[in-house]
Amino acid sequence: LHPLSTLSSLSLSGLQLNTTRVTDHGIRCIVSCFPVLTSLNLMWLNVTDQGCSALASLGQLKHLSLRGCHSITAKGVLQLGALTGLEHLNLLNLPEFDVTDASLRSLTPLTNLQSLSLGDTHVGNNVSDQGLVVLASF
Question: What is each CA distance from 14 to 35, 40, 61, 71, in whole angstroms?
């Protein structure tokens, strides 16, 4: 993103970086350069919990897809609870993320959430009736 540093103005509301080689460092640069993004598609990237921590500062984000970001765990998803304006969150195919009552509770600050995609993500014996109540509240 260094070549963009000379821009005096850029109106960018959405960004798709599917299947690129962007890592956590690139995510931090994106967050720094484009703090008012409303839509971010990061499918199939090498993003980890540290990248999720950086994403948590995008206060205007409404749509976020982290589908296939295989290194994201419950710790990273916990960070996403800071994105209180999120309306759509795609967490499909995150094999390191275990859906539990606690991980579902970490998303309760997302009061504007209209859709939450969790398919192909591990849901073990750690989701109880309480977790389903949390899920139903979205």
Answer: 11, 6, 9, 23
